[in-house]
Specification:
Length: about 425
């Protein structure tokens, strides 16, 4: 049955309360009303439901004041009873599993290389994830699984439309993982997932507008404004693989020169590092390790990539002029010097001049090296903060309510 207008208002109010607590908590009910603009009665109704559902909790020690004690509320992130989300990032060489709380804090994570040869199968990934969840099972309610990966992903039905590096086309990934794991599953592109994570848990500026540029085995981007990340028709937005890099003469398989994917992807950088004899295999991780150990050739190659990324970033910056631009690129996430190189290159190419004038507008992800672990779980948590009532509606991939890893439903009331 479709929700009525009253249901929609209640859902919107619940989301407003939940996001207000996320941003300002611990916070008393009276402060929630003042900060959110909702009436005290509406706040009281929604906090009662959110407390019952386990998403909020009352903290010990009432706030001082005359009359009814102003008991502070916060998201239920406590080790006893606080719900968590599982995250799965599917990369080209490996998958990363994680457990994340309602504030986006990564509680546990593990990287698992894909068996070779050939592309990984959903069943094998699910089985490895299941072992991870069993190992770290603390009895806390598991809300479900968020999955992030590169390429063209359609989150509405959890389909990977195209991921060339994995050899996946029209793969119903959400349905395959849900059937194997008996969990609620949501899937999205990893550039959009990081953008969502920044909007929910990162810098406040990201809620106004954000551009996120992801540089890895897959190169893609995401744009968000007023808290909403753009998907476009068919969720095909964000393909910047063939964005021209000013000054690059690298030949792309598409027949052109200077495309971002061919110039700056992990595959391109790893191949060049192997050709130069810097690493024994085409691995960006090994290249970063070599630079950290003092190899000047590795450092030079990483700085060359940083300048290429900065040049491409300047093009996106000039088009969108976001409040903040987030760059996910391994070396700059780990070492500020490479981020400074990106900023300097962007300053040299940008036509607006606003990016170099305020370097804090070009930043690394707030979660640092755990960026993809947190972002994957945000694929599940994002819809929760937009509409907490979706946990109690039928029509999801799995039945409504919290689910433990074994599939046993836990109590949830609207």
């Amino acid at each position: 049955m479709p929700p009525t207008a009253g249901d929609s208002r209640a859902a919107a109010n619940a989301a407003t309360v939940l996001r207000t607590v996320l941003e300002h908590g611990p916070v008393a009910r009276s402060a929630i009303a003042r900060l959110s603009g909702l009436s005290p009665a509406a706040v009281s109704r929604q906090t009662t439901g959110l407390l019952r559902s386990g998403l909020l909790r009352e903290l010990p020690g009432p706030a001082a004041g005359v009359g009814r004690p102003r008991i502070p509320l916060d998201l239920h992130t406590g080790a006893i009873g606080g719900p968590i989300a599982a995250g799965l990032h599917i990369g080209v060489p490996s998958a990363t599993f994680s457990l994340v709380d309602l504030r986006g804090t990564v509680l546990a994570r593990r990287t698992s290389p894909h068996p070779s040869p050939g592309a990984p199968g959903a069943a094998g990934i699910a089985d490895r994830l299941a072992a991870f969840l069993r190992e770290f099972d603390t009895g806390r309610p598991l809300l479900g699984l968020g999955v992030a990966l590169g390429g063209w992903v359609r989150p509405a039905d959890g389909t990977v439309v195209r991921h060339e590096a994995l050899g996946w086309h029209d793969r119903p990934l959400a349905a395959q993982l849900a059937e194997r794991l008996r969990l609620r599953v949501r899937v999205d592109n990893h550039a959009r997932a990081v953008a969502h994570s920044e909007i929910l848990f990162g810098r406040p500026e990201a809620r106004r507008s954000i551009v996120h540029l992801f540089i890895g085995s897959v190169v893609d981007a995401a744009f968000g404004i007023e808290g909403t990340v753009h998907q476009g028709p068919g969720a095909a937005a964000g393909d910047v693989a063939h964005l021209p890099v000013p000054g690059s003469r690298t030949v792309c398989p598409c027949g052109r020169t200077g495309c971002l994917q061919a110039t700056a992807s992990d595959a391109a950088l790893g191949a060049e590092a192997l050709r130069l004899g810097i690493v024994p295999e085409p691995s960006v991780n090994l290249l970063v390790d070599a630079a950290a150990a003092g190899d000047p050739r590795a450092d030079r190659l990483l700085r060359e990539r940083a300048r290429a990324v900065g040049s491409a970033a300047a093009v996106l910056f000039d088009v969108f002029n976001p409040a903040v631009m987030v760059i996910t690129e391994l070396s700059s996430v780990l070492h500020d010097g490479y981020l400074d190189e990106i900023r300097a290159a962007a300053a040299a190419v940008s036509r607006t001049g606003s990016a170099p004038g305020d370097p804090d507008r070009i930043v690394a992800p707030h979660a640092g090296p755990a960026v993809l672990s947190g972002a994957a779980a945000t694929v599940l948590l994002g819809p929760l903060f937009r509409d907490p009532s979706h946990l109690n509606r039928e029509g999801e991939i799995t039945p409504s309510g919290y689910w433990s890893f074994t599939g046993a439903p836990l109590a949830f009331e609207p």
